[in-house]
Structures are given as structure tokens and as C-alpha cells.
Amino acid sequence: MTAGKIQFAENEGTYVLKFLGEIRLTLCSSLESFLDNMFNDPDFSSVIIDLSETSTIDSTSLGILAKLSIQAKKRFNLVPILISTQDDITRVLLSMGFDSVFVLVREFEGLVKLPMNDLPCEGSTEPATQERVLNAHKVLMSLNEDNRKAFSELVRQLEKGQTSRDKDKNKNGDDNSNS
């Protein structure tokens, strides 16, 4: 398997994101930042996500894609296009309910060649990463009942861990204020 990376291009407000290789949580900080900037572009008009060269994609990355679609619909009344030509990836997308939030394209001859740029990989703190994982899975749970059942225990554990960290943080903060 090849290490994952995300490439992007933009032409007249249309953004193209191409996911290559293994798409994991480690790329999510960069992806979220990119999506925030994309949605704030006054010329933004559409987005195409190309998974035709994706070998694997984790649930956190899928949650961020689902969030992208939900935001595009809410803010721009737009349903993004998701290209998935590999049966195993398409099967995962369908099982997660992505056909209800994306225009899912299973066959295509290739996009107009645009010069693609690598999305730089940003670092992330552990609490920010945990928050991202939690939010991504909550978005997946909102797509359908199967996802709710599949991820409810994980979300419950992540929220429990978050609460424990917040209590420890407050306790340490209280201890520091007394010294």
C-alpha cells in the first residue's frame, strides 16, 4: 500500500480533491483546514472528490467527507460529486449512506487534466485529533441508522474520555490556582 496523500486543484471556483493511497486520520487536519478555506472562497461554486486511486480510507476521513457534503448542501444548496471506481471503496461508501449525500459516480473516463498540488500535511495536537475523530463519527452516525448502531459505542467511549480529560484539566487548573 502506498502512503496516502491528497491533491487539489481549483479552476473558476470548481475544486477537485484527489485522494491517493491510504487515506488516514493523519491527513484530516490538513483536509479540514483546506475545506474551511474552500468554503470561504467567494468564487466557490462546486467540489469534486476523486477516490479512483484510493486504496483505503478510514472512518474519520469518511466523516469529514460527509461533513463536507452536509455543509455544501446547507451553505450553497450544492450536492458534491464523489468519484469512486473501485468496488471495495464504493461498497464502503454505499454502506455508510454516502449515496444520499453525494452524487456518486462509479465510472468515468478521467477529469480534464488540471495541474494538481499536494495538500501539505499539518500536524495536530492529541486533543484536537480526538475532537476531530469524535465529530467525524457523530456526522457518520447522523447519515443513517446502521451508522448510528456501528459507531455509537465508539462515540460514547470518546465522549467519556473527553469528559475525563476535561475533569483532569479542571482539577490541574484548580491545583495550579492554589499554588
From TrEMBL:
SUPFAM superfamilies: SpoIIaa-like. It comes from the Bacteria. Residues 4-103 form the STAS domain. Residues 155-179 are annotated as: Disordered. Gene3D superfamilies: STAS domain. Signal peptide: none annotated. This is Anti-anti-sigma factor. The lineage of its organism: Bacteria, Pseudomonadati, Pseudomonadota, Gammaproteobacteria, Oceanospirillales.
